[in-house]
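Postdoc handover notes: sequence design on the structure in folder B. Input tokens:
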């Protein structure tokens, strides 16, 4: 299946509301079924983020899991995202590379992945969000964690104040709230001014991932 071009990827990013990070579900062995369900439910961007063994996946295992996710994303018209590694994003033909504050600088990652890949940045303070909103080469950013979360141990909550500040800043790049967001908390996140969210456990641990994604999609798309 031919990949999306740069214009199509950026159009899809602009329209994206629901971003899911999943591990490779190695123990459950159901990555393909899980991805199919989450995408059918309305996930717009699907990132492989596997730190379940306390360390990132080996490159070959990461590429194998990305192949599974990439096929599912292509079927559903969703964007495939890689976490941290520009070389893997390039090798996997990913649409998106997500970089944290301690990952590759955006300018360096851009040299590796080229112009068509969308680059995202994590931010945890108003200063970082403001930098990500203007730094050349950044296509979107995330603000969080809204609440402390076992998915990112050791990272203190930035709270909903950061969401409020980012919403008030008039940022023109797409930005997503992340961290501790579930069905019960989504209304607070939306009320704070976000209209895009990233979730992990709310879908990866759901009994019915398709229904969980559909629940978020319905509320985020109004
Ligand atoms: C979409 C999205 N937002 C934030 C993160 C977190 O990135 P980072 O701070 O680099 O932490 P790790 O995920 O690498 O542990 C993300 N991965 N994706
Ligand atoms: C991967 C990650 N990054 C964060 C950040 O604030 O940058 S919070 C987070 C984990 C979010 O997981 P859950 O939806 O299960 O709480
Ligand atoms: Mg990272």
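Designed sequence:
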């Amino acid at each position: 299946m031919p990949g999306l071009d740069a214009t199509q990827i950026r159009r899809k990013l602009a329209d994206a509301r629901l971003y899911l990070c999943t591990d490779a579900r190695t123990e459950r062995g159901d990555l393909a079924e899980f991805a199919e369900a989450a995408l059918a439910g309305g996930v717009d961007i699907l990132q492989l983020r596997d730190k379940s063994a306390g360390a990132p996946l080996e490159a070959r295992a990461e590429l194998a899991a990305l192949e599974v996710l990439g096929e599912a994303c292509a079927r559903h018209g969703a964007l495939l995202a890689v976490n941290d590694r520009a070389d893997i994003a390039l090798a996997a033909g990913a649409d998106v590379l997500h970089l944290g504050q301690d990952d590759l600088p955006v300018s360096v990652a851009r040299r590796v992945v080229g112009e068509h890949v969308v680059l995202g940045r994590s931010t945890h303070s108003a200063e970082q969000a403001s930098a990500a909103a203007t730094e050349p080469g950044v296509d979107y950013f995330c603000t969080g964690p809204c609440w402390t979360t076992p998915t990112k141990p050791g990272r203190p909550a930035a709270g909903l104040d950061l969401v409020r500040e980012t919403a008030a800043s008039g940022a023109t790049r797409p930005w997503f709230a992340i961290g501790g967001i579930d069905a019960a908390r989504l209304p607070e996140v939306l009320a704070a001014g976000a209209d895009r969210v990233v979730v992990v456990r709310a879908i990866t641990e759901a009994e019915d991932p398709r229904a969980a994604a559909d629940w978020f999609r319905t509320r985020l798309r109004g």
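Context for whoever picks this up: The first helix runs from residue 6 to 15. Don't rerun without checking with the PI first.
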